[in-house]
Design goal:
By secondary structure, the protein is mainly alpha-helical. The chain has one domain. A two-stranded antiparallel sheet has the order 1-2. Helix 2 packs across helix 3.
Length: 99
């Protein structure tokens, strides 16, 4: 999907977030691929899942800073953020086991 399509969906008029949106778009696509195995843009359901992931990532982009542990996910973090963290943890374990 294009930056303009994503901005239309998120109802973003300005260009203030144009520098971070491509990273969020990549994360949303990776999330969908990790969740379902493939991202086929020709399927409406895949597009909607991608856009829903994009919306969640965009609207909930904060972590809680702690003085001793760096950053952690707050107890009210979205399922999307928890899922992204779990996917990355599993990926790291899989790579360590293969390595």
């Amino acid at each position: 999907m294009t930056l303009e399509q994503v901005k239309d969906y998120l109802r973003i008029d300005g260009d203030e977030d144009d520098n971070i949106l491509p990273l969020m778009m990549q994360a949303a696509e990776e999330f969908v691929i990790n969740a379902v195995g493939e991202f086929d843009e020709s399927k409406a359901r895949a597009k909607m899942l991608y856009l829903a992931a994009m919306q969640d990532i965009y609207e909930n982009r904060t972590l809680t800073a702690t003085s001793t542990q760096g950053y952690s996910v707050s107890s009210n973090a979205t399922l999307m953020m928890r899922s992204l963290i779990t996917q990355l943890q599993i990926e790291q374990i899989t790579e360590a086991e293969a390595g």
